[in-house]
Protein backbone atom coordinates (compact mmCIF):
# COMPACT_ATOMS: atom_id res chain seq x y z
CA UNK A 1 0.00 0.00 0.00
CA UNK A 2 1.33 3.39 -1.03
CA UNK A 3 -0.11 6.11 1.26
CA UNK A 4 1.40 8.89 -0.86
CA UNK A 5 -0.36 7.60 -3.97
CA UNK A 6 -3.59 7.20 -2.01
CA UNK A 7 -3.30 10.74 -0.68
CA UNK A 8 -3.53 11.96 -4.28
CA UNK A 9 -7.12 10.65 -4.31
CA UNK A 10 -8.20 13.07 -1.55
CA UNK A 11 -8.59 16.64 -2.88
CA UNK A 12 -8.89 18.30 0.55
CA UNK A 13 -5.45 17.11 1.66
CA UNK A 14 -3.66 19.21 -0.99
CA UNK A 15 -3.87 22.60 0.66
CA UNK A 16 -1.94 24.80 3.05
CA UNK A 17 -3.12 25.73 6.53
CA UNK A 18 -1.48 28.81 8.06
CA UNK A 19 1.25 28.66 5.43
CA UNK A 20 2.08 24.97 5.97
CA UNK A 21 1.04 21.84 4.03
CA UNK A 22 -1.92 20.26 5.81
CA UNK A 23 -1.24 17.22 7.99
CA UNK A 24 -4.63 15.77 8.89
CA UNK A 25 -4.50 13.67 12.07
CA UNK A 26 -8.12 13.82 13.23
CA UNK A 27 -9.40 10.74 11.43
CA UNK A 28 -11.08 9.24 14.50
CA UNK A 29 -13.43 12.24 14.42
CA UNK A 30 -14.03 12.04 10.67
CA UNK A 31 -12.04 10.87 7.69
CA UNK A 32 -11.50 12.75 4.46
CA UNK A 33 -13.27 11.73 1.24
CA UNK A 34 -11.66 10.37 -1.92
CA UNK A 35 -12.55 11.78 -5.28
CA UNK A 36 -14.54 8.63 -6.19
CA UNK A 37 -16.94 9.20 -3.27
CA UNK A 38 -17.35 12.89 -4.04
CA UNK A 39 -18.06 12.07 -7.69
CA UNK A 40 -20.55 9.32 -6.78
CA UNK A 41 -22.63 11.74 -4.70
CA UNK A 42 -22.33 14.44 -7.35
CA UNK A 43 -23.37 12.01 -10.09
CA UNK A 44 -26.41 10.88 -8.10
CA UNK A 45 -27.66 14.44 -7.69
CA UNK A 46 -26.93 15.34 -11.31
CA UNK A 47 -28.44 12.23 -12.95
CA UNK A 48 -30.46 9.98 -10.63
CA UNK A 49 -32.03 12.23 -7.99
CA UNK A 50 -35.51 10.95 -7.13
CA UNK A 51 -37.27 9.39 -4.19
CA UNK A 52 -36.93 5.64 -3.70
CA UNK A 53 -39.43 2.78 -3.48
CA UNK A 54 -42.19 5.00 -4.89
CA UNK A 55 -42.09 6.23 -8.47
CA UNK A 56 -42.23 3.89 -11.44
CA UNK A 57 -40.44 6.43 -13.63
CA UNK A 58 -36.84 5.93 -14.74
CA UNK A 59 -35.21 8.28 -12.22
CA UNK A 60 -37.11 6.65 -9.36
CA UNK A 61 -36.01 3.20 -10.51
CA UNK A 62 -32.39 4.28 -10.84
CA UNK A 63 -32.39 5.92 -7.41
CA UNK A 64 -33.94 2.82 -5.83
CA UNK A 65 -31.39 0.57 -7.51
CA UNK A 66 -28.53 2.78 -6.27
CA UNK A 67 -29.91 2.89 -2.73
CA UNK A 68 -30.57 -0.83 -2.43
CA UNK A 69 -27.31 -1.56 -4.23
CA UNK A 70 -25.51 0.30 -1.45
CA UNK A 71 -27.30 -1.89 1.10
CA UNK A 72 -26.03 -4.98 -0.72
CA UNK A 73 -22.49 -3.59 -0.52
CA UNK A 74 -22.81 -3.01 3.24
CA UNK A 75 -24.15 -6.53 3.76
CA UNK A 76 -21.23 -8.00 1.83
CA UNK A 77 -18.73 -5.71 3.56
CA UNK A 78 -19.83 -6.95 7.00
CA UNK A 79 -20.57 -10.52 5.83
CA UNK A 80 -24.18 -10.26 6.97
CA UNK A 81 -26.42 -13.19 6.07
CA UNK A 82 -28.87 -10.97 4.17
CA UNK A 83 -29.68 -7.38 3.27
CA UNK A 84 -32.67 -7.81 5.62
CA UNK A 85 -30.11 -7.45 8.43
CA UNK A 86 -28.87 -3.99 7.30
CA UNK A 87 -30.79 -0.88 8.35
CA UNK A 88 -29.57 2.50 7.12
CA UNK A 89 -29.39 5.16 9.84
CA UNK A 90 -27.78 8.57 10.34
CA UNK A 91 -24.74 6.89 11.90
CA UNK A 92 -23.48 5.02 14.95
CA UNK A 93 -25.33 7.22 17.44
CA UNK A 94 -28.67 6.73 15.71
CA UNK A 95 -28.03 2.99 15.37
CA UNK A 96 -27.26 2.52 19.06
CA UNK A 97 -30.30 4.57 20.02
CA UNK A 98 -32.43 2.39 17.75
CA UNK A 99 -31.31 -0.71 19.66
CA UNK A 100 -31.74 0.98 23.04
CA UNK A 101 -35.27 2.13 22.21
CA UNK A 102 -36.54 -0.55 19.85
CA UNK A 103 -35.01 -3.60 21.54
CA UNK A 104 -33.81 -2.84 25.08
CA UNK A 105 -36.96 -1.11 26.29
CA UNK A 106 -39.05 -4.02 25.03
CA UNK A 107 -37.10 -6.80 26.74
CA UNK A 108 -35.69 -5.24 29.94
CA UNK A 109 -37.44 -5.36 33.30
CA UNK A 110 -36.46 -4.53 36.90
CA UNK A 111 -33.60 -6.73 38.06
CA UNK A 112 -32.12 -7.15 34.59
CA UNK A 113 -28.62 -5.86 33.92
CA UNK A 114 -26.92 -3.97 31.10
CA UNK A 115 -23.13 -4.37 31.03
CA UNK A 116 -20.79 -1.82 29.44
CA UNK A 117 -17.26 -0.47 30.09
CA UNK A 118 -15.90 2.89 31.31
CA UNK A 119 -14.18 3.41 27.93
CA UNK A 120 -17.44 3.83 26.01
CA UNK A 121 -18.17 6.86 23.85
CA UNK A 122 -21.18 8.78 25.16
CA UNK A 123 -23.16 7.37 22.23
CA UNK A 124 -22.75 3.89 23.73
CA UNK A 125 -23.33 4.99 27.30
CA UNK A 126 -26.16 7.50 27.55
CA UNK A 127 -28.70 5.35 25.62
CA UNK A 128 -28.12 2.55 28.15
CA UNK A 129 -28.39 4.94 31.09
CA UNK A 130 -31.77 6.03 29.76
CA UNK A 131 -32.90 2.47 28.99
CA UNK A 132 -32.03 1.43 32.55
CA UNK A 133 -33.96 4.37 34.00
CA UNK A 134 -36.99 3.63 31.80
CA UNK A 135 -37.16 -0.10 32.62
CA UNK A 136 -35.75 -0.45 36.13
CA UNK A 137 -32.75 -2.39 34.87
CA UNK A 138 -29.28 -1.90 36.37
CA UNK A 139 -26.22 -0.57 34.54
CA UNK A 140 -22.97 -2.39 35.38
CA UNK A 141 -19.38 -1.74 34.29
CA UNK A 142 -16.61 -4.16 33.40
CA UNK A 143 -13.52 -2.70 35.12
CA UNK A 144 -10.52 -1.65 33.06
CA UNK A 145 -6.98 -2.87 33.53
CA UNK A 146 -4.31 -0.22 34.29
CA UNK A 147 -3.33 -0.06 30.60
CA UNK A 148 -6.93 0.51 29.48
CA UNK A 149 -7.67 -3.03 28.28
CA UNK A 150 -10.46 -5.39 29.29
CA UNK A 151 -9.69 -8.66 31.04
CA UNK A 152 -11.78 -11.67 29.99
CA UNK A 153 -11.74 -12.75 33.64
CA UNK A 154 -13.43 -9.45 34.52
CA UNK A 155 -15.95 -10.00 31.73
CA UNK A 156 -16.72 -13.45 33.17
CA UNK A 157 -17.19 -12.03 36.66
CA UNK A 158 -19.38 -9.11 35.53
CA UNK A 159 -21.69 -10.87 33.05
CA UNK A 160 -24.13 -13.29 34.67
CA UNK A 161 -27.60 -14.79 34.27
CA UNK A 162 -29.20 -11.39 35.02
CA UNK A 163 -27.33 -9.74 32.13
CA UNK A 164 -29.57 -9.11 29.14
CA UNK A 165 -27.36 -6.76 27.08
CA UNK A 166 -23.59 -6.34 26.76
CA UNK A 167 -22.71 -3.13 24.88
CA UNK A 168 -19.07 -2.45 24.05
CA UNK A 169 -16.86 -0.66 21.55
CA UNK A 170 -14.77 -2.82 19.24
CA UNK A 171 -12.06 -0.12 19.34
CA UNK A 172 -11.75 2.69 21.91
CA UNK A 173 -11.68 6.15 20.34
CA UNK A 174 -9.36 7.36 23.13
CA UNK A 175 -7.18 4.45 24.21
CA UNK A 176 -6.85 2.62 20.91
CA UNK A 177 -7.78 -0.58 22.76
CA UNK A 178 -9.01 -3.36 20.47
CA UNK A 179 -11.47 -5.42 22.49
CA UNK A 180 -11.75 -9.23 22.03
CA UNK A 181 -15.29 -9.03 20.67
CA UNK A 182 -15.66 -12.69 19.64
CA UNK A 183 -14.68 -13.90 23.12
CA UNK A 184 -16.94 -11.35 24.82
CA UNK A 185 -19.82 -12.38 22.53
CA UNK A 186 -19.33 -16.00 23.55
CA UNK A 187 -19.49 -15.07 27.25
CA UNK A 188 -22.59 -12.91 26.67
CA UNK A 189 -24.40 -15.65 24.77
CA UNK A 190 -23.48 -18.32 27.32
CA UNK A 191 -25.29 -16.19 29.90
CA UNK A 192 -28.32 -15.57 27.68
CA UNK A 193 -27.44 -11.97 26.80
CA UNK A 194 -27.17 -10.20 23.44
CA UNK A 195 -24.08 -8.21 22.48
CA UNK A 196 -24.24 -4.75 20.91
CA UNK A 197 -21.02 -3.50 19.32
CA UNK A 198 -20.08 0.11 18.66
CA UNK A 199 -18.12 -0.28 15.42
CA UNK A 200 -17.47 3.42 14.74
CA UNK A 201 -13.70 3.10 15.20
CA UNK A 202 -13.27 -0.46 13.90
CA UNK A 203 -15.20 -0.56 10.62
CA UNK A 204 -12.93 1.94 8.79
CA UNK A 205 -9.77 0.14 9.79
CA UNK A 206 -10.33 -3.60 10.34
CA UNK A 207 -11.88 -6.37 8.29
CA UNK A 208 -15.18 -6.97 10.09
CA UNK A 209 -17.11 -10.25 9.84
CA UNK A 210 -20.25 -10.01 11.96
CA UNK A 211 -21.01 -13.71 11.59
CA UNK A 212 -17.52 -14.81 12.62
CA UNK A 213 -17.68 -12.42 15.60
CA UNK A 214 -21.23 -13.67 16.31
CA UNK A 215 -22.44 -10.22 17.36
CA UNK A 216 -26.16 -9.53 17.64
CA UNK A 217 -26.09 -5.83 16.73
CA UNK A 218 -23.26 -3.86 15.11
CA UNK A 219 -23.33 -0.08 14.48
CA UNK A 220 -21.07 2.09 12.34
CA UNK A 221 -20.83 5.49 10.61
CA UNK A 222 -19.97 6.25 7.00
CA UNK A 223 -18.13 9.52 7.61
CA UNK A 224 -15.28 7.81 9.48
CA UNK A 225 -14.62 5.43 6.57
CA UNK A 226 -14.28 7.81 3.61
CA UNK A 227 -18.05 8.16 3.18
CA UNK A 228 -20.41 11.13 3.55
CA UNK A 229 -21.64 12.51 6.84
CA UNK A 230 -25.16 11.69 7.99
CA UNK A 231 -25.17 8.05 6.87
CA UNK A 232 -24.41 4.84 8.72
CA UNK A 233 -25.94 1.45 9.29
CA UNK A 234 -27.07 -0.96 11.95
CA UNK A 235 -26.53 -4.67 11.47
CA UNK A 236 -28.85 -6.89 13.47
CA UNK A 237 -29.64 -10.57 13.41
CA UNK A 238 -32.93 -10.96 11.57
CA UNK A 239 -34.69 -12.78 14.40
CA UNK A 240 -33.93 -9.88 16.75
CA UNK A 241 -35.00 -7.23 14.24
CA UNK A 242 -38.26 -9.11 13.73
CA UNK A 243 -39.03 -8.86 17.45
CA UNK A 244 -38.43 -5.11 17.51
CA UNK A 245 -40.97 -2.37 16.99
CA UNK A 246 -40.10 0.68 14.87
CA UNK A 247 -39.18 3.87 16.72
CA UNK A 248 -40.04 6.24 13.84
CA UNK A 249 -43.39 6.14 12.08
CA UNK A 250 -44.58 7.63 8.82
CA UNK A 251 -44.14 7.06 5.12
CA UNK A 252 -42.00 4.32 3.60
CA UNK A 253 -42.09 2.00 6.63
CA UNK A 254 -45.76 1.00 6.40
CA UNK A 255 -47.50 -1.93 4.74
CA UNK A 256 -51.16 -1.05 5.29
CA UNK A 257 -52.70 1.97 7.03
CA UNK A 258 -56.29 2.16 8.28
CA UNK A 259 -57.94 4.88 10.34
CA UNK A 260 -57.09 3.20 13.65
CA UNK A 261 -54.48 0.52 12.92
CA UNK A 262 -51.41 0.14 10.73
CA UNK A 263 -48.99 -2.62 9.82
CA UNK A 264 -45.33 -2.43 8.93
CA UNK A 265 -43.19 -3.36 5.98
CA UNK A 266 -40.84 -6.31 6.16
CA UNK A 267 -37.19 -5.97 7.19
CA UNK A 268 -35.28 -3.75 6.88
CA UNK A 269 -37.67 -1.07 5.66
CA UNK A 270 -39.88 -1.02 8.78
CA UNK A 271 -37.04 0.86 10.50
CA UNK A 272 -36.51 3.40 7.71
CA UNK A 273 -39.45 5.78 7.99
CA UNK A 274 -39.56 8.80 5.70
CA UNK A 275 -37.37 9.68 2.76
CA UNK A 276 -34.06 7.96 3.49
CA UNK A 277 -30.53 9.35 3.15
CA UNK A 278 -30.27 8.28 -0.48
CA UNK A 279 -27.22 10.26 -1.59
CA UNK A 280 -25.45 9.31 1.64
CA UNK A 281 -26.06 5.64 0.97
CA UNK A 282 -24.73 6.02 -2.57
CA UNK A 283 -21.62 7.71 -1.17
CA UNK A 284 -21.20 4.99 1.45
CA UNK A 285 -21.36 2.35 -1.26
CA UNK A 286 -18.62 4.19 -3.17
CA UNK A 287 -16.53 4.42 0.02
CA UNK A 288 -16.82 0.66 0.49
CA UNK A 289 -15.68 0.13 -3.10
CA UNK A 290 -12.68 2.38 -2.42
CA UNK A 291 -11.69 0.67 0.85
CA UNK A 292 -12.04 -2.80 -0.65
CA UNK A 293 -9.84 -1.76 -3.58
CA UNK A 294 -7.13 -0.83 -1.07
CA UNK A 295 -7.74 -3.79 1.24
CA UNK A 296 -8.77 -3.61 4.91
CA UNK A 297 -5.92 -5.88 5.99
CA UNK A 298 -3.45 -3.55 4.27
CA UNK A 299 -5.02 -0.53 5.94
CA UNK A 300 -4.84 -2.22 9.35
CA UNK A 301 -1.17 -3.09 8.93
CA UNK A 302 -0.28 0.39 7.71
CA UNK A 303 -2.04 2.18 10.56
CA UNK A 304 -0.48 -0.04 13.22
CA UNK A 305 2.93 0.67 11.73
CA UNK A 306 2.28 4.43 11.82
CA UNK A 307 0.92 4.26 15.40
CA UNK A 308 3.97 2.31 16.56
CA UNK A 309 6.27 4.88 14.98
CA UNK A 310 4.26 7.71 16.55
CA UNK A 311 4.53 6.17 20.02
CA UNK A 312 8.29 5.85 19.57
CA UNK A 313 8.69 9.46 18.39
CA UNK A 314 6.38 10.99 20.99
CA UNK A 315 7.74 8.90 23.86
CA UNK A 316 11.16 10.43 23.19
CA UNK A 317 9.80 13.90 24.00
CA UNK A 318 10.30 14.68 27.66
CA UNK A 319 7.05 15.38 29.52
CA UNK A 320 4.66 13.54 27.21
CA UNK A 321 2.24 11.02 28.71
CA UNK A 322 0.71 8.47 26.31
CA UNK A 323 -2.50 6.66 27.27
CA UNK A 324 -3.68 3.17 26.36
CA UNK A 325 -1.99 -0.17 25.72
CA UNK A 326 1.54 -0.24 24.36
CA UNK A 327 0.86 -3.23 22.08
CA UNK A 328 -2.05 -4.51 19.98
CA UNK A 329 -3.65 -1.10 19.61
CA UNK A 330 -5.44 0.73 16.84
CA UNK A 331 -4.00 3.58 14.76
CA UNK A 332 -4.32 6.47 17.17
CA UNK A 333 -2.22 8.00 19.94
CA UNK A 334 -3.80 9.92 22.82
CA UNK A 335 -1.44 11.99 24.94
CA UNK A 336 -0.82 15.02 27.12
CA UNK A 337 2.18 17.35 27.00
CA UNK A 338 3.11 18.14 30.59
CA UNK A 339 0.69 20.62 32.14
CA UNK A 340 -0.08 22.35 28.82
CA UNK A 341 -3.82 22.16 28.21
CA UNK A 342 -4.69 19.97 25.21
CA UNK A 343 -6.64 22.83 23.61
CA UNK A 344 -3.50 24.96 23.73
CA UNK A 345 -1.50 22.10 22.22
CA UNK A 346 -4.01 21.73 19.39
CA UNK A 347 -4.05 25.49 18.77
CA UNK A 348 -0.28 25.68 18.42
CA UNK A 349 -0.23 22.62 16.18
CA UNK A 350 -2.84 24.24 13.96
CA UNK A 351 -0.47 27.17 13.38
CA UNK A 352 1.90 24.53 11.97
CA UNK A 353 -0.80 23.13 9.66
CA UNK A 354 -1.41 20.02 11.81
CA UNK A 355 -4.98 19.02 12.70
CA UNK A 356 -5.46 16.93 15.85
CA UNK A 357 -8.32 16.54 18.34
CA UNK A 358 -8.32 17.95 21.87
CA UNK A 359 -10.91 17.59 24.62
CA UNK A 360 -12.72 14.78 26.40
CA UNK A 361 -13.54 13.01 23.09
CA UNK A 362 -17.13 12.32 24.24
CA UNK A 363 -15.69 10.06 26.95
CA UNK A 364 -15.99 12.00 30.20
CA UNK A 365 -16.13 8.91 32.49
CA UNK A 366 -12.96 7.63 30.82
CA UNK A 367 -11.25 11.00 31.37
CA UNK A 368 -12.06 10.71 35.07
CA UNK A 369 -10.66 7.17 35.08
CA UNK A 370 -7.47 8.54 33.50
CA UNK A 371 -7.49 11.34 36.13
CA UNK A 372 -7.36 14.09 33.51
CA UNK A 373 -9.86 16.66 32.29
CA UNK A 374 -8.90 16.31 28.63
CA UNK A 375 -6.31 14.85 26.27
CA UNK A 376 -4.88 15.46 22.81
CA UNK A 377 -5.31 12.79 20.15
CA UNK A 378 -3.60 12.10 16.84
CA UNK A 379 -5.47 9.51 14.79
CA UNK A 380 -4.20 8.01 11.55
CA UNK A 381 -5.67 6.65 8.34
CA UNK A 382 -4.55 5.13 5.07
CA UNK A 383 -3.19 8.42 3.67
CA UNK A 384 -0.94 9.26 6.65
CA UNK A 385 2.81 8.69 6.58
CA UNK A 386 5.79 8.60 8.91
CA UNK A 387 6.62 12.08 7.63
CA UNK A 388 3.30 13.26 9.06
CA UNK A 389 4.36 11.84 12.42
CA UNK A 390 7.69 13.63 12.14
CA UNK A 391 5.85 16.91 11.52
CA UNK A 392 3.71 16.21 14.61
CA UNK A 393 6.72 15.41 16.82
CA UNK A 394 8.65 18.48 15.67
CA UNK A 395 5.62 20.70 16.28
CA UNK A 396 5.15 19.25 19.78
CA UNK A 397 8.77 20.08 20.58
CA UNK A 398 8.09 23.65 19.43
CA UNK A 399 4.93 23.70 21.56
CA UNK A 400 6.90 22.58 24.60
CA UNK A 401 9.47 25.30 24.01
CA UNK A 402 6.75 27.91 23.50
CA UNK A 403 5.14 27.15 26.85
CA UNK A 404 8.48 26.80 28.61
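^ Assign residues to that structure.
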Amino acid sequence: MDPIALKAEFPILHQEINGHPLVYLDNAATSQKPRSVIEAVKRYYEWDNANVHRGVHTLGSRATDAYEGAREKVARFLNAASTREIVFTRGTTASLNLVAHGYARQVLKPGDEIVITPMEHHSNLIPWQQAAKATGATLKYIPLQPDGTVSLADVESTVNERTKIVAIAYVSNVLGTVNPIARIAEIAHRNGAVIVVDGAQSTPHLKVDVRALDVDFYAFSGHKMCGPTGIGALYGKAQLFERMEPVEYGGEMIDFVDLYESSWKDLPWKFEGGTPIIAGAVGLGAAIDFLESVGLDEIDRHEKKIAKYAIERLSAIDGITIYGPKEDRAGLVTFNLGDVHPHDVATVLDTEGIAIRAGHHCCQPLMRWLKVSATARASFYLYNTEQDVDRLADALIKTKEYFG
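The first strand starts at residue 16 and ends at 17.
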